[in-house]
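Today's session is about reading a structure prediction critically. Students often jump straight to the picture, but the first step is always the sequence itself: look for stretches that repeat, for charged clusters, for runs of hydrophobic residues. Only then move on to the predicted structure, which in these notes is written as discrete structure tokens rather than atom positions. Here is the chain we will use throughout the hour.
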Amino acid sequence: MPFVEAVGARLFYEETGSGHPIVFVHEFGADHREWETQVRFFSRGYRCITYNARGYPPSEVPADPNLYGWEFAVADIAAIMRGLAIPKAHLIGLSMGGYAVLQFGLKHPQMASAIVAAGAGTGSLPATREAWLKEAPETVRGFLDRGMEAMAEEMAHSPTRIQLKHKDPRGWSEFSDHLKAHSAEGMSRTMAGYQAKRPSLHDFEDAFRQMRMPVLLAVGDEDEPCLETNLMLKRAIPGAGLWICPNTGHAINIEEPVAFNTEVQAFISAAEAGRWRPWVR
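Below is the predicted structure for this chain, in token form.
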């Protein structure tokens, strides 16, 4: 298995195709396998790299809780790119991964040619921030006390994920099976160190106003925890476009893969041709 060395953890990765690199960054409830439909599509013309975050086997699951956090997630993207000798790439992230690629764009703008942030913003909305922070410790304990199967069943039936089951029962079953096989320790530590401690995206609104690379924001219209934050991001980031996919929940890339791939391809093509222009106030 191929691995890249990051600070405190070895990260498993896969790469397919050739051309300009695209690095895919997965969400909390997924791993590199949930990008399969995108890899099959984009690897026809791009070098596609997927990897598992720390805490998600076969990547290492550090025992030290201090080796988890959003800063590590950003540094891990850089580690993957440097380990594979990639100076600049398009970045595509979902949810937890969407948060990471946006922060990566702030910290390493010279390494990002274009950014797609899908389903980013859970726990960021000021009106629901306190409730999110109160619920997080229960989720942290749940992975260890209740186990992955029970937690996966609950997550897969959540209000922003049940849409996948209604549309694609086979895809939902595969997603659920993958989730049940995750490391309970890794999920618990990721929740405690990353999800529960990351700052709200709203805290970075002024910084986002300085972002100058092309950005596509993507969100399902039934992904209620993320909608308002994506409107803020659209207003703040000069080069951002916002695609809202109708009748769609959180896992937008596996729920509506054809629409997602089409929108992302159109965005990337426009960005590469210099036709994705930031608006001017």
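Discussion point for the tutorial: The chain has a mean pLDDT of 96.
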